[in-house]
Amino acid sequence: MSAYERQMSGGTAPRRVLSHALLFALLCSTALVAASGNAAAFEIFGIKLWGSSEDEDADIVDPLRYAVTIEAPDADEDLAEKLENASALKDDEERPVSGSLGLLAKARGDRDQLVAALYADARYEGVVTITIEGKPLDDLPPDAEFSGPQPIPVVINIATGPKFTLGDIRLEGDAAGLAGADFGLIAGGDAGSGAVLKAEASIVRALKEEGRPLAKVTDREIVADHATSTLDVTLTVAAGPVAGYGDTTVEGTEKVDRDFTEYMTGLKRGRQYSPEEIDEARDRLLGLEVFNSVTLKEADGLDADGNIPIGVEVSERKPRYFGLGGTFSNTEGLGLEGYWGHRNLFGRAEKLRIEGAISGIGSNEFTELNYNAGIMFEKPGMVGPASKFFAGVSTVLEHPDAYDNFSVKGNTGLSYELDKQQTVSAEVALDYSKITDSFGKHTYLIASVPLRYVYDNRDNRLNSTTGFRALAYAEPSYDILNGSAFVKLRGEGSTYQSLDTASKFILAERVAIGSIIGAGLQDVPANRRFYAGGGGSVRGYAYQGIGPKDADGQPIGGLSLFETSVEMRIAITDTIGVVPFVDAGTVSTKQFPDFSDIQVGAGVGLRYITPFGPLRIDAAVPLNRGPDDPHFGIYAGIGQAF
């Protein structure tokens, strides 16, 4: 056994201090995460669209190929997968290293990362042995040369050892008063390095939430008792004084106004420090969409007034952007959209976006395609950092089955973030439209005041695994030309539950209900009535295909709506998933939904996870199909269904 292996197995010592090893485990984990973002070629569905292995290897001096075998006979399936994921040798096996020296360096780094992975699983007696061409790594000289046939054989043998649990837990210093709190350090509990480091961060966070920005761990003693396979933890913490915010300084701005960036943090000098406010300030700056990265850092000490200075470092994004998108359904046809935008129009994160779309391609006659276009403007920080002013003009020419519509709409309003999860908005809008439907031809001039409240605590808005989103919407409206008034109400909620620790099984549920009060069906413009059916609603049915119809079988819309959906999102791999689902909905001419006439669709979808959101393909059939309903529906787009 080498000296290194004796150190890892503990030698003859029954106990050993592991403080530095735990810190190294954290650093290795951080490095692994940081390294995972590099990519030299682009692949989708396993197909490389550009770049090649030869192109990526062209800059490698003296390329040397190797083949890795990982042997971990004592590891269960979950640990074996973690160890393989931690191995850079295995992850980069397809790419050669730079000569024998590069292979030696990679192997030594790999051993450290594998030991860190063992520590993360509370395996403090684990031993990692690496051989190259049959020779132990520690027996190889620094200038060893591997001249055998390539690929050079590399064998990693891992003896995991027993899994440790927590033993004696002691909090000392200013943390002594927190001993009764649950930071995840419980005798007999998880002794993994990640759990201990997470507990340290939680203790410091708890003290910082008291307004103490200088709180920190001043000493740690982590001792492994090999006789009992337990880990004793002693943490000493200094709380530091309560302090307010000092000066906020900003670095890294180029085209974005520096003073505006400071203003948008919302950190007022003298107000008591709060780590939650620091997090909110970071999220608010990122939400401006003008920065690639935002870092807020407290100073190492207080200023002369006893306040903590805050440093903000940012890197800017390119201000202009453009894009193309599309959706497809066998019942709704092909839809194409394009947009151009500017993120920083006047230097204070003002946004301008111009967009247009065409839909109904393949399902409508050429003269009855649907068109819409719009210009939108946003200005953040209008009445405080949490506010946003917005205005827009849009025009629509559409020909769904229910009506033909040409309209021009202008709106302006203000949104305000009550906190990280809650947002309210109010606007005024004026909508001129000419509509032909089952009741004839009509011209409307609708003035309205849309009001919205949103609560959203989802972990990921592109692909949620936990959390909840709720929407409450009210739109009082008055038809200036025809003298009718009505109020459109809508509520919607969706929830996401991870059924396992790895979030491979996600149960997603959605429910929506709506009602229009104050006017009869004929007095409400057809484009403001409720409809159901199609992608994003009840899949398997045609767009607007659910609800009351006229004598010709064309939908007329309704005054009330109810929809619900349930999906089981199952991850097959890290990028591919399948989604069985059931949707249901009803539309009624009454002001309250008719639950006795609910249409149900069911199907299965395929998801491919990308950095810009899941690519979605769904196929569904109507379970209580009517004579005018399709036999099936296929839908494709970007993003989850809800």
Automatic annotation (TrEMBL):
It comes from the Bacteria. The keyword Membrane applies. Keywords: Membrane, Signal, Transmembrane, Transmembrane beta strand. It is found in: Membrane. Gene3D superfamilies: membrane protein fhac, membrane protein fhac: a member of the omp85/tpsb transporter family. InterPro entries: Bac_surfAg_D15 (IPR000184), D15-like (IPR039910). PANTHER family: BACTERIAL SURFACE ANTIGEN (D15) DOMAIN-CONTAINING PROTEIN, SORTING AND ASSEMBLY MACHINERY SAMM50 PROTEIN FAMILY MEMBER. This is Outer membrane protein assembly factor. It comes from Mesorhizobium onobrychidis.
